[in-house]
Amino acid sequence: MFIGHYGPALAAKGFAKTVPLWVLFVAAQWVDFLWATFVIVGIEKVRIIENFFGLSPLDLYFMPYSHGLPSAILLSLFIGGVVAALLPGNRVVIIAAVALTAFSHWLGDLIVHRPDLPLIFDEMKVGFGLWANPYVSVPVEIGLMFLGLWIYDRAAPSPTRAGTIALWALGFFMAALQIQNTFFAEHPASAEGFAQLSLFGYVLLALFAAGVDWARKEKAPGR
Ligand SMILES: [Zn+2]
Fold this sequence. Notes:
By secondary structure, this protein is mostly helical. The protein has one domain. About 65% of the residues lie in helices and about 10% in strands. It has helices at about 5-15, 20-30, 30-40, 65, 70-85, 90-110, 135-155, 160-185, 190-215, and strands at about 45-55, 55-60, 115-120, 125. The strands form 2 sheets. A two-stranded antiparallel ribbon has the order 1-2. The chain has a two-stranded antiparallel sheet with strand order 3-4. A hairpin with a 2-residue loop joins strand 3 and strand 4 (about 125). Helix 5 (about 70-85) packs antiparallel against helix 6 (about 90-110). Zinc ion binds next to helix 3 and helix 6.
């Protein structure tokens, strides 16, 4: 899953208002940040095969450290704890929001991946395989993202008009990115290239989210 992962991040922002959106964007892809890093250094393995599964070229045959269920749970609690230690606000709310956002990544992957998510070590792999039909998976991903965006915008409306526009603009950009990435993109030929491109995309979207944070800040002091 790609853009759909940002649905839970956006929804969480509506409840954990002291956590910047960009932090939740990083949390949403936290296990993929590790996955990409592990692929680049050779700890985890992926093969790039065009149209391997639906239109996805990813044969994710070995990723127990980033995408194994026990690791995903521990990694989610870890990032929740780190963010709660660093940011002001209600600790319980922050841990819950960040850890659940991070763990929702695994659940999102569970919906779309073929059975390549190990339940324990590198064994008992699961995945419901929605990516087999991109004409279903792409609307589901975009729908999840916009649902989260709408929840955020209703739960914590922007004090500025620019903030509302920036948030929805980011939503439409991400929807376009999902469509482009699934149907029109030429994929990198190597696993490392794919991992690097993923990292670049996740960092770019986190930067855009930081821009949305800035645009939605209260500008006039007092009131
Ligand atoms: Zn993933």
